[in-house]
Design goal:
Layout lengths: L2 H35 L10 E4 L5 H10 L6 H10 L9 E4 L6 H10 L5 E4 L6 H11 L4 H8 L2 H5 L16 E4 L5 H15 L2 H9 L4 H14 L6 H14 L6 H8 L9 H4 L23 H8 L8 E4 L7 E4 L2 H17 L5
Antiparallel strand pairs: 1-2, 3-4, 5-6
């Protein structure tokens, strides 16, 4: 082989080596590019990723690492920098799926494409219970909600008082974003309340000589008494009979509420002595507010009450959850004695 051929062969080798080096560099770059943007990086440890209002990019990185949301934090940080996440960071609750890549999650956050929360609440006794539930489902803490509910000047603008504001919240399922401010939540619930009280419901309330708020307060007592929905209209009719005759409601659930002891199974003479506007054994008419968040079924049971002549009720002695109803005091005393004896037999004294 002459010198010229050797030179050609040398040049070919150099070209091949250069191409190989370029290929390897390209392959490394492609692999890094793929890992940064398209390779699965989200773990199965968390169902949702939360970004708080006012959070910075470093807060996001810390959350990703502390909750082990990503396998490789470095690749996410690189993708976040190149995709300009820091200037388009949107708070919210973002749904995760195992194997999701960095690019998909970052685009979700930049677009604010968050997963709404399904708020489903009912049978909550006190405003504090409600605020506690909301703080677990939404970003604002419980004090933010309590501050609104306890603001007399604010709730009065919506036609309520601090005592009866609880009637504004109609138990149902509502979709809402996790980072919804407490006041926005309140306004949304007010709009739902106004939609709930249709002209037909208002007309029925007026026929009972009650306001929607009063209907809800009575419904909360019906809810407290009735275990079975089919008894609700009967109980509602009974209490409306007592109200129309000026007879005290004497509803045990109101006494339990007034004593703030929900472990009570037997209302005793000592409990009846509590001096509270919620004690319907001491005070006539409806209490100033609901004793629990009234259900839709209880509200409609009041509006569509059973037309009966009952004035008294007592839990059945078989502890079935049903009640014995009576029109006269004498019949009621017979029913009450049976129930008291059943409580004594079971050694239930409070």
């Amino acid at each position: 082989m002459n010198d010229e051929n050797k030179k050609v062969t040398g040049k070919q080798k150099a070209v091949i080596i250069t191409l190989l080096v370029l290929f390897l560099i390209g392959l490394i770059f492609a692999m890094r590019f793929y890992k940064t943007y398209f390779a699965g990086n989200i773990t199965a440890d968390q169902k949702y990723f939360y970004i708080k209002t006012g959070a910075k990019l470093d807060d996001v990185f810390q959350e990703l690492e502390s909750k082990h949301i990503v396998e490789d934090l470095g690749s996410f940080e690189e993708a976040a920098a190149k995709m300009d996440l820091s200037t388009k960071l949107k708070p919210g609750r973002y749904k995760l799926s195992r194997g999701m890549n960095n690019r998909t999650l970052i685009n979700k956050v930049k677009a604010g494409n968050q997963e709404p929360v399904n708020l489903k609440y009912q049978n909550l006794r006190r405003k504090e219970d409600f605020a506690g539930y909301l703080s677990k489902e939404l970003e604002p803490d419980s004090s933010s909600f309590i501050k609104i509910l306890d603001s007399a000047s604010l709730v009065e603008q919506y036609g309520f008082t601090k005592e009866n504001i609880y009637t504004m919240f109609i138990p149902n399922t509502y979709q809402m974003y996790w980072n919804t401010p407490a006041m926005d939540f309140f306004k949304k619930m007010n709009s739902e309340y106004l939609k709930f009280w249709t002209p037909d419901r208002k007309k029925k309330a007026q026929a009972l000589n009650l306001t929607p708020i009063q209907v809800s307060i009575l419904a909360s007592i019906v809810d407290g008494e009735a275990i079975y929905d089919k008894e609700m209209p009967i109980i509602a009719g009974l209490y409306l009979n007592r109200l129309s005759k000026g007879i005290r409601l004497q509803a045990d659930p109101t006494v339990i509420f007034a004593n703030n002891d929900f472990t009570v199974k037997r209302v005793t003479f000592a409990l009846l002595q509590v001096d509270s506007k919620y004690n319907t054994y001491k005070y006539e008419g409806l209490p100033p507010g609901p004793i629990m968040m009234p259900s839709i079924k209880a509200i409609d049971a009041v509006l569509n009450k059973d037309n009966n002549n009952y004035l008294y009720m007592c839990a059945k002695e078989d502890f079935s959850g049903y009640h014995n109803f009576a029109e006269t005091k004498a019949q009621h005393e017979i029913n009450a004695r049976k129930y008291r004896q059943a409580l004594n037999d079971r050694k239930i004294y409070r």
